[in-house]
TrEMBL record:
Keyword annotations: Heme, Iron, Metal-binding, Monooxygenase, Oxidoreductase
Keyword Metal-binding in record: yes
Lineage, top ranks: Bacteria, Bacillati, Actinomycetota, Actinomycetes, Kitasatosporales
Domain of life: Bacteria
PANTHER family: BIOTIN BIOSYNTHESIS CYTOCHROME P450 (PTHR46696:SF4), P450, PUTATIVE (EUROFUNG)-RELATED (PTHR46696)
One biological process term in Gene Ontology: cholesterol catabolic process
GO molecular function: cholest-4-en-3-one 26-monooxygenase activity; heme binding; iron ion binding; steroid hydroxylase activity
Protein name as catalogued: Cytochrome
Pfam families found in the cross-reference section: p450
UniProt cross-references to Gene3D superfamilies, sorted A to Z: Cytochrome P450
Protein family per UniProt: Belongs to the cytochrome P450 family.
InterPro entries reported for this sequence: Cyt_P450, Cyt_P450_B, Cyt_P450_CS, Cyt_P450_sf
Length: 411
């Protein structure tokens, strides 16, 4: 069934993209394939007193939206849920949800958090941690990869980056998990809001402490720097540290879990990696594409313009779907088949343009560390139960992944 939408635009057979259960109950890849064929840019109708929004599905259109900072603003929010609720309270203060010229100044500061000096030490620790975790679990036989491994890598890495005290890390992980997604459907949204506030408050306290007694860490660096001729307010410091936490935890965690799931589904690819016939860096890129943890990002139109033959009006919400772009068969042949040697692989998992992920190098390093540890210690990887999907219309991934590892030494 096709319907008529805003301005007479054709719409694809409907799935509610605002519902966290939609892509648990429906196959996203079949849906997006149909959307790209039938109406690659369409108007998603409003529901439950929330506005409608544009959905952009084709690779080229998604790429052009990411780059179009003159016509598409991030300052009202960059995630659908927040945009539909009327905007992000962090707009204009936090990197991901601000526009030029402020965004550019702030980004230059935030990039210092990822200087080779800071990153080198953090990457060394992540390599050690990954190796330790994988050596331990490979002796266990059966276990939940999400709980025993994936949960411990990204969050600890960001905490290392921010020098978060060890005793606070467990609580931060709990809040972080609640803030973006929920493994249970009920009460997800309220919990998410509360968790987000808790994180910001915690980081504000830390920002106060470090501003008065700065150390050699990233929070101190952000807390004592000047951006566009003035120091950041405690709220701005907290929000920008928070963006590293949330940006860096969930998406890296989902990628790690999906990567191991991919190995259970494509044992020949795993064997190639294990035997060293597949390059680790090439494999990292394909796993990032295959997993695509951030399903969409969004903007608000600043003026009228056209995309994919549709007329967008000033003020409209525009969402672009990485899950669809990364599986666009005009760019990636047999996109759902994991091909760890795939080249070129210009996936949009980290976005594109001025907001391209500042943590991309760290995200890649974490996944690489995991792969290296797996290759070193593990021989066989098998599924050992039903993986549990998370409920979210933003994050794609799993909250639990029961697997059985056979250690290399067993061979
Ligand atoms: C931005 C994905 C890891 C922090 C982004 C964007 C994407 C993305 C798609 C662009 C958002 C937009 O255009 O609105 C991912 C994925 C990751 C990952 C898939 C892991 C696999 C990280 C890590 C950190 C981080 C490790 C920090 C430690 C950020 C921040 C931004 C961002 C602060 C905002 C950049 C800006 O607006 O200029 N990320 N990210 N991300 N990411 Fe990541």
């Amino acid at each position: 069934m096709t319907m008529r939408g805003k301005g007479g635009s054709r719409m694809s057979p409907s799935l509610d993209l605002t519902d966290p259960a939609t892509f648990v109950r429906n196959d996203p890849y079949a849906f997006w394939h149909r959307v790209r064929q039938e109406s690659p840019v369409y108007w998603h109708p409003s529901a439950a007193e929330r506005p409608g929004f544009w959905v952009v599905a084709g690779y080229d259109d998604v790429l052009s939206c990411y780059g179009d900072w003159k016509r598409l603003s991030s300052a009202h929010g960059n995630v659908l849920d927040v945009l539909l609720r009327g905007g992000d309270s962090a707009g204009g203060k936090m990197l991901a949800v601000s526009d030029r010229p402020w965004h550019r100044h702030l980004r230059n500061l935030m990039l210092r958090a990822f200087s080779p000096r800071v990153l080198g030490e953090v990457v060394r620790k992540v390599e050690e941690r990954a190796q330790e975790l994988i050596s331990t679990v490979s002796e266990l036989g059966s276990f939940d990869f999400a709980a025993e491994v994936a949960e411990h890598i990204p969050m600890n890495t960001i905490c290392d980056l921010l020098s978060i005290p060890a005793q606070d890390r467990k609580q931060l992980l709990l809040w972080s998990k609640e803030a973006l997604a929920s493994e249970h459907q009920e009460g997800a949204r309220l919990d998410a809001l509360e968790a987000r506030n808790e994180i910001v408050l915690y980081l504000m306290e830390l920002a106060f402490e470090r501003r008065s007694k700065p150390g050699d860490d990233v929070i101190s660096m952000i807390a004592t720097a000047e951006v566009d001729g003035r120091p950041l307010t405690p709220e701005e410091i907290a929000l920008n540290c928070y963006s590293l936490l949330l940006g860096g935890d969930e998406s890296s965690r989902m990628t790690a879990i999906s990567s191991v799931l991919a190995f259970t589904r494509y044992p020949d690819q795993w064997r190639g990696l294990r035997e060293g016939t597949i390059d680790l860096d090439t494999a990292v890129e394909e796993l990032l594409r295959w997993a695509t943890p951030g399903m969409h990002f969004g903007r608000t139109a600043l003026c009228d313009f056209s995309v994919g033959g549709q007329r967008v009006r000033a003020g409209d919400i525009v969402t672009f779907w990485n899950t669809s772009a990364n599986n666009d068969e005009t760019v990636f042949s047999a996109p759902r088949a994991l091909d760890l040697s795939r080249r070129p692989n210009k996936h949009l998992t980290f976005g594109h343009g001025p907001h391209f992920c500042v943590g991309a190098a760290l995200g890649r390093a974490e996944l690489r560390a995991l792969l290296r540890a797996l290759v070193t210690s593990v021989r066989d990887i098998e599924l050992d139960g039903e993986p549990q999907r998370i409920y979210s219309n933003f994050l794609y991934g799993y909250g639990s992944l029961p697997v059985a590892f056979r250690p290399r030494s067993a061979s």
